[in-house]
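Exercise: predict the fold of this chain.
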Amino acid sequence: MIDADTYIHKLAITSPLMEPVVQAAIQALRLPLGSRGLDAGCGIGLQAVLLAEAVGPAGHVTGLDLSPEFLRCTEATVRERGLSEQVSFRAGDVRQLPFDDNAFDWAWSSNCVGYAPL
């Protein structure tokens, strides 16, 4: 089994390869400016940043992930992109969302549904 730090490193170096495809998918969704969204299974927050850029400065993205190791990386990711006000993160399980109904205008989930449940 791969340790969390090694996996995080692999995510960070492979993300630039996937980023153009992810950005094209986000553009195709035409997310409303100023909308609020959920990135369910956000990992280290790289796609949450792209989603926040798509909804503009008045929008907000909440990232949700089970992994405390991943969530520790997320704050640095949003700070580096200057999006700390637009993106927040929370520990939680996508199978039992810890949010009220209608808390978001849309939801995104990528690269997490194939993982086996704990």
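Check your answer against the key: The two ends are 14 Å apart (CA to CA).
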